[in-house]
Prior knowledge:
The chain is α/β, with parallel strands linked by helices. Helices cover about 35% and strands about 20% of the residues. The chain is globular. The protein has nine helices and seven strands; from the N terminus they run H-H-E-H-E-E-E-H-E-H-H-E-H-H-E-H. Strands 3-2-1-4-5-7-6 form a seven-stranded mixed sheet, sandwiched between helices. The protein has a single domain, classed as 3-Layer(aba) Sandwich (Rossmann fold), CATH 3.40.50.
Amino acid sequence: MPAHPTIFDRPLLRKRQGRAxxxxxxxxxxxxxxxxxxxxxxxxxxxxxxxxxxxxPTDALRRALAGTTKISTLIAAEPAAASLDNQFLRVTADEExxxxxxxALDLVVSALALHWVNDLPGTLIQIRRALKPDGLMxxxxxGGETLVELREAFAAAETEMESGLSPxxxxxxxxxxxxxxxxxxxxxxxxxxxxxxxxxxxSAFALMxxxxxxxxxxxxxxxxxxxxxRATLLRMAGIYAERFADPDGRVRxxxxxxxxxxxxxxxxxxxxxxxxxxxxxxxxxxGAKEILAGEKAGR
Length: 299
């Protein structure tokens, strides 16, 4: 058995993502993230010989980076089941078991894939090891505020209509937790930030159709295995409309995008100064009077 908990049914995730691609996936969210990631990478004053796009569920990120001069070789790392555009170099890989040798890569990017791994700390450690010294990881994943409205509406409806709650919306990582995981994985100069995208729909059912077309419906291992009762589903939609509708009747859905950036350690990187090593007092730099412990500030 794995040392980490099995939160997600990953074979089911792959099956649903493949079905979504065949039916014409809803790609607005990954397209948005891919464009933003390309902009963030453009601001990095470096070039990269070998880069890997890890697990991005469409070709959106590869296409966004295709014209950049910052990357010499871009490789798509994805499951064998993925059937995407063949114009890009590919290697069969799973985000939880990377096939790359230590120090083989200059850059790892990923858009909306890592929130589905069962062992995020282990995946981050593998990425850091696969990077050359001073190599960069730049990724985006869904955060804990994603679909809070849907989670609340389902919880209220099932409490009212059913004998108990069933996990419906994935427990995506908290921003502070991700920052701690970056440090635990050994990344230098880690930066974690987030932004929130609000999408409006005609109803909760329209939102759920989009999630289905993303291949992003419930794949929690502890999900209830019996079909949801129609009465409960209708009540959920009613609660959603009551609590999260705008004046025009359309409902809101939140997507929190958590951005992770970190470097593989290298001697040339900037390091924090040791305590007590400052060459100048802070009060002198600010042009302020220093007040010693026990003294009272003058009026």
